[in-house]
């Protein structure tokens, strides 16, 4: 185990210093190898032209566009079928992400084509030619890789300076949707990428988060729909680590990526952060951690109600404060009591209707481009009666569009939280 932890901490150096990384993109296991047999039969055809031809014409079916899968943007990934995804297994593997982002040059050995990637461009065998990463719209690994390289060398991109924490959260958002054989590898398998962000201006690193803009990073939330990965591939659950870290749950998470970082105001005052490392690598796996902070806080009661997906027995979490019920996103999906999935959920992860919780305000933010305001509150469950020790169980996120209709819908919820909140010292574990 010690040797594994030591070598895992070196992956940033290994990939960044490699002259060439060769990736078995089409391999479903270690036994398949880089060069599977291609089933590409060719056929001679005749022509209806009256003029004689000097060459014989052959045809074959088109190659599978492996590069389309490898370099899809976040907007495109949901359009692929299971059959298409199975032709390029590496795009769903968590451990492969840092290999793809940190390597300078990669030769992908797909099931039916070879693909070349470097910082400048990508090209392949399927006759599509080559293309520049700047031409893509949306967030793709190819773009993030180029930006990571530019960040490392103090460069910007065509749109100006690159905000490192914004890029980090985009990477985490993609990474959290990937699969692991061992769920507790989530921090270890991104440690190489974290080391690439290790700069004085970002502050220290704790369990997948940087001190810089940490209030924003604490406002992660479970993605509400994970249909493509459920039920066999992902079991939503808490795993080892502090509850305030995105790495403490399995399954995809998201951030408030529309926020302009210059316009968000943290309302939580963080006084101390500590983590208990598994090994010696500060970027690696952790057994636990705590945040000591003061923030506006208000007590409430959990209410679990059926969702529109009633046939699936999924429950929504609401927080009741006086006569108001405010929608929250639970970190672990809740199921109707007695169902099979309720039985498979760890007892410590099941919420009880009527239990008391504490709502702690993280930040208030304004997105000037889209005329939106945001308020984010952590929902906490008491761990110890003796001290102010709390575990995160969800997030309240109140977007407020600057129109009268939207304002009228969200303002009462915002008021009931802010008007009743008082400053409170808490310890998050």
Query: What would the average pLDDT be, to the nearest integer?
Result: 81
How far is the N terminus from the C terminus?
A: 26 Å
Largest sheet: 10 strands, mixed
- What would the principal axes of the Cα set say about the shape? elongated
Number of helices: 11
Overall description:
With 429 residues, the protein is an alpha+beta fold. The protein has a domain at 226-429. The protein contains 11 helices and 21 strands. The strands form 5 sheets. Strands 12, 13, 14, 15, 16, 17, 18, 19, 20 and 21 form a 10-stranded mixed sheet that branches. A hairpin with an 8-residue loop joins β13 and β14. It is elongated, with a radius of gyration of 24 Å. Residues 226-235 have low confidence and may be disordered.
Topology:
Elements: H1 2-8, H2 11-17, E1 21-23, E2 43-45, E3 57-59, H3 66-70, H4 82-86, H5 96-102, E4 106-109, E5 114-117, E6 121-124, E7 130-132, H6 141-152, H7 164-175, H8 191-196, E8 205-206, E9 209-210, H9 214-218, E10 221-222, E11 253-254, E12 264-266, E13 269-277, E14 286-306, E15 314-321, E16 324-330, E17 334-335, H10 340-344, E18 356-367, E19 372-384, E20 389-401, H11 404-420, E21 422-428
Parallel strand pairs: 1-4, 20-21
Antiparallel strand pairs: 2-3, 4-5, 5-6, 6-7, 8-9, 10-11, 12-18, 13-14, 14-15, 14-18, 14-21, 15-16, 15-17, 16-20, 18-19, 19-20
